[in-house]
């Protein structure tokens, strides 16, 4: 019987400084969050060593690429170029883990891109074309996560532009908090592209990163939708404390 793989999101620093032995002991699959600071403060060989340990222990890995301050569709060409360079380097580093998926933020911001969103989207597609070609050379897969994008209709043309090359990381809590559209409408519109789901809950006002069931995200309806269609994306717990992480793992394991 087919089932979804379950992962726990963890920042690089917490992985190597606190949780690595526990992860290995419990055979937990990981989504490792990289940042610019990691890429600047750890050497290629240091990162490669951790990647080799995880591969030897048969721990499956996805990677969340850096996103802070990056804007891949920026109207300022210097910012766009710097964002692209940072992203390409992070993909090269991420490939050391032979990841099953790489999660990418677009850099769209609801406050200052709203009035130029069509121009922004065109610029983003230009950057994404280079990113996907580079990722294909390294044999890694890219999934675009919804964050501040207003509607699924706004980003759907991006997926259509890269059919079978770009996938979707669905974050229903982001849809609930930041978008103009209900999370189930996002799913109904874009489910054909889905590869991964970030599983964390919210009260609806802030991006709280709570355990599933503590907030108002419609996870039951989301899971029912997927199971009815026999869709089995990667499920990544993105709760931000240990108690909620254990709760998420219990729920996801039971459901899937």
The appropriate CATH architecture is Alpha-Beta Barrel
Largest sheet: 8 strands, parallel, barrel
Q: What's the shape?
A: globular
Strand order of the largest sheet: 1-2-3-4-5-6-7-8
CATH C-level name = Alpha Beta
Uncertain stretches? none
Rg of Cα set: 17 Å
CATH homologous superfamily caption = Divalent-metal-dependent TIM barrel enzymes
CATH topology: TIM Barrel
Kindly state the number of beta strands: 8
Give the structure's gist in a few sentences.
The chain contains 10 helices and 8 strands.
Draw up the topology in text.
Blueprint: E1 6-11, H1 12-26, E2 29-33, H2 36-41, H3 44-56, E3 61-64, H4 77-94, E4 102-104, H5 117-137, E5 142-145, H6 152-161, E6 166-170, H7 172-178, H8 183-190, E7 194-199, H9 219-228, E8 234-237, H10 242-255
Helix pairs in contact: 4-5, 7-8
What does this structure look like?
The model has no long low-confidence stretch (mean pLDDT 96). The N and C termini lie close together (11 Å). By secondary structure, the protein is of the alpha/beta class. An 8-stranded parallel β-barrel has the order 1-2-3-4-5-6-7-8. The chain contains 10 helices and 8 strands. It is globular. Helices cover 48% and strands 14% of the residues. The chain has one domain (6-241): Divalent-metal-dependent TIM barrel enzymes (TIM Barrel, Alpha-Beta Barrel). β4 (102-104), α5 (117-137) and β5 (142-145) form a beta-alpha-beta unit. It has helices at residues 12-26, 36-41, 44-56, 77-94, 117-137, 152-161, 172-178, 183-190, 219-228, 242-255, and strands at 6-11, 29-33, 61-64, 102-104, 142-145, 166-170, 194-199, 234-237. The longest helix has 21 residues, at 117-137.
